[in-house]
Design goal:
By secondary structure, this protein is mainly alpha-helical. The protein has two domains: 6-84, no CATH class; 108-212, no CATH class. It contains seven helices and four strands. The chain has helices at residues 6-10, 16-57, 63-84, 112-115, 128-133, 172-176, 209-212, and strands spanning 157-158, 163-164, 186-188, 193-194. The strands form two sheets. It has a two-stranded antiparallel sheet with strand order 1-2. Strands 3-4 form a two-stranded antiparallel ribbon. The longest helix is centred in the first third of the chain and has 42 residues, at 16-57. The chain starts with 5 loop residues before the first helix and ends in a 16-residue tail after the last helix. Bound molecules: iron/sulfur cluster. Iron/sulfur cluster binds at residues 120, 154, 156-157, 164, 166, 170, 174.
Length: 228
């Protein structure tokens, strides 16, 4: 019986080295993060124990007080950890992409020659639904952000027809995104004036803060698509 993941079994021979390399990259990322986290945890623990010992020695606090406060702080930190996680990004809130109602229709076909489908260069996290479905690829080195290729475009972007090769299964941010007020792409949507920096290789990281801001929105309000 072949125990390899289904994706490996289906892969043609030339695809395998690339997949192994992605897996190796993902593992290296995990090991690096684990080492860094362990180092920081040990350092923090040393400081904390030293501080507690000193405070007890000086009669400023008691062990019971520490235990009681520790319970309260642990609960608070656990909630924070569950919300932000250790560098892993997941789409929230979770919605069913197949019943998601798209509210805006953009005339992309008349604009692609200007915008170059820049929206398919942005980074966003996948949902549990996308991950479980297994169609949309994500970056092994930056879970669970959508996979991008070397040219900066999404792995699923069809360069020939400038369209989505997984249109039926595309994630919610691709369904919900409204570029009209996104100044990273359009300086003036109605008059088709595109941001001149759109073709820079490091777009949108080449933009300064005002260019990244979307008028009328607070910068900390979650956007349907964003490039961290
Ligand atoms: S999944 Fe499709 S629509 Fe979404 S970014 Fe990739 S190519 Fe674009």
């Amino acid at each position: 019986m072949n125990n390899e993941p289904e994706e490996y079994q289906k892969a043609s021979v030339p695809e395998l080295p690339a997949m192994y390399s992605e897996v190796a990259q993902g593992l290296a990322y995990l090991h690096n993060r684990t080492n860094a986290t362990t180092g920081r945890t040990l350092e923090a623990a040393s400081f904390t124990y030293a501080l507690i010992e000193l405070l007890i020695e000086k009669g400023l606090i008691s062990l019971d007080e520490i235990d009681e406060r520790k319970k309260q702080v642990s609960e608070r930190l656990l909630m924070r950890f569950l919300k932000h996680d250790a560098g892993v990004a997941i789409q929230e809130p979770e919605q069913d992409k197949y019943t998601f109602q798209q509210t805006v229709k953009i005339d992309c076909e008349n604009r692609l020659h200007l915008c170059q489908a820049a929206c398919c260069k942005m980074v966003f996290p996948l949902s549990y639904q996308d991950i479980a479905e297994g169609v949309i690829k994500w970056e092994l080195s930056r879970p669970y952000r959508i996979a991008k290729d070397a040219d900066g475009y999404c792995h699923h972007f069809d360069r020939q027809c400038k369209g989505c090769s997984v249109h039926d299964q595309r994630p919610i941010p691709c369904r919900a995104y409204d570029c009209r007020n996104d100044r990273r792409i359009w300086l003036d949507f109605e008059n088709k004036i595109v941001n001149p920096k759109i073709n820079d290789p490091d777009w949108p990281h080449n933009l300064n803060i005002p260019e990244m801001e979307i008028p009328g929105r607070e910068s900390d309000v979650p956007r349907p698509r964003q490039d961290p």
